[in-house]
């Protein structure tokens, strides 16, 4: 797939690296395409390049929104016309002090993203486990889950594959509004990591029988 | 332990049965102690009895709040003085149509319960998996987790044991305010069960390595 990754931090950088390794064409959209930060990320990536958000998104079928929440709206709106494109929302609307979420209950970051890009097919994914565990999601013989939700079946099928490409076990949890439930789950992962001092070696799994 | 279970529906009835089987002394607090519903529950329970909330709570060290959310405040306030007692909040503040939660983001059901019983030691537990899976929490060789949170270490230690008594794997997720994250997780369990038609044979697990 042709993928634009908006943001080259731990989430975007890791997803870009893993997807490029699986043969996807990856272009980063960043505020400073010739800056040191993105250059460092590109060094490990076969054939990936960096440009501005609009150019990155223009040639992509899939756009992965991997910015911090405070700049997510700018990133989406600077990406231009996203009609028909798949927009993966990997953000979490975290309070600056990690004390909780700033969006929730009656809406979600994902639904806000959908509002900013009404013609895109938004899928929430990659938010419920740390980027450090992408590509390394095995816990013994089990794989941590990569929960995702969205309203477009074809978009979800594509994202399911992109989740599997990062070693996470894709688990469909329904419509986009269920991001209201995945974002608090992400906050729980983060709280356990930071405030309860569990580190980053944990992940959630939905057991079934 | 001497346990008062407020509510004798699927959650309270099941917890009471499992705890009685482990040798705990169980008293149900219900609006109609001689009604058919609670009589049915008591039939399977060795030595358990039913009375009103105040009498049930008076002789108990542990009170388990297992009512539907709309009557939870009445149940707590009718239970009398809960100073120093352990109050397990097993509720979820569900919208009537199961479309979401009616409390969250900046507070939680558990924190509201603490407000109604300021001198009780509130621990959130038993809300993130269906009552049908209590006592039957094995998924192959794995056990689904019984997440709990609270602010009193001794109360949490007691609740940890009561969670283990129902076959769930006790997992401490920090202070009571993290009920803001467990209640959406419960909503996710319920949404998967009801709206995504997964049934009730699922449960969450925190993988670690």
Brief overview:
The structure is a homodimer of 209-residue chains. Chain A is an alpha/beta fold.
Detailed description of the structure:
- 2 copies of one chain form a homodimer.
- Chain A is globular, with a radius of gyration of 16 Å.
- With 209 residues, chain A is an alpha/beta fold.
- In chain A, the strands form 2 sheets. In chain A, strands 3-2-1-4-5-6-9-10 form an 8-stranded mixed sheet, sandwiched between helices.
- The first copy, chain A, has a single domain (2-194), classed as Rossmann fold, CATH 3.40.50.720.
- In chain A, 33% of the residues lie in helices and 22% in strands.
- Chain A binds chain B through residues 100-101, 103-106, 139-140, 142, 144, 172-174, 177-178, 180-185, 187-188, 191-192, 195-196, 198, 201-209, and chain B through 100-101, 103-106, 139-140, 142, 144, 172-174, 177-178, 180-185, 187-188, 191-192, 195-196, 198, 201-209.
- β11 (202-208) of chain A pairs antiparallel with β11 of chain B, so a sheet runs across the interface.
Number of helices of chain A: 7
Largest beta-sheet characterization of chain A: 8 strands, mixed
By oligomeric state, this entry counts as homodimer
CATH superfamily caption of chain A: NAD(P)-binding Rossmann-like Domain
CATH topology of chain A: the name is Rossmann fold
Order of helices and strands of chain A: EHEHEHEHEHEEEEHEHE
By DSSP, the count of extended strands of chain A is: 11
Structural class by secondary-structure content of chain A: alpha/beta
**Rg measurement of chain A, Å:** 16 Å
The mean pLDDT of chain A is 97
CATH-defined architecture of chain A: 3-Layer(aba) Sandwich
- Domain count of chain A: the total is 1
Biggest protein-protein interface? A-B, 37 and 37 residues
Parts with pLDDT < 50 across at least 5 consecutive residues of chain A:
none
Strand-residue proportion of chain A = 15-25%
Helix percentage range of chain A: 25-40%
Assign the CATH class of chain A. Alpha Beta
- Distance separating the two termini of chain A: 34 Å
């Amino acid at each position: 797939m042709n993928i634009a990754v908006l943001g080259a931090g731990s989430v975007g950088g890791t997803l870009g690296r893993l997807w490029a390794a699986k043969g996807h064409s990856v272009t980063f959209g960043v505020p400073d395409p010739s800056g040191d930060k993105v250059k460092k990320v590109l060094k490990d990536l076969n054939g990936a390049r960096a440009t501005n958000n609009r150019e990155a998104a223009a040639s992509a079928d899939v756009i992965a929104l991997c910015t911090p929440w405070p700049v997510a709206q700018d990133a989406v709106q600077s990406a231009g016309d996203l009609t028909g494109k798949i927009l993966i929302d990997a953000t979490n609307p975290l309070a600056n002090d990690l004390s909780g979420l700033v969006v929730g209950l009656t809406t979600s970051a994902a639904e806000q993203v959908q509002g900013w890009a009404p013609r895109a097919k938004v899928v929430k994914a990659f938010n419920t486990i740390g980027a450090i565990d992408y590509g390394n999601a095995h816990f013994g013989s089990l794989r941590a889950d990569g929960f995702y939700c969205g309203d477009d079946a074809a978009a979800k099928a594509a994202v399911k594959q992109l989740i599997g490409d990062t070693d996470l076990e894709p688990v469909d949890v329904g419509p986009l509004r269920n991001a209201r439930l995945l974002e608090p789950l992400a906050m729980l992962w983060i709280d356990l990591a930071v405030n309860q001092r569990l580190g980053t070696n944990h992940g959630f799994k939905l057991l079934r029988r």
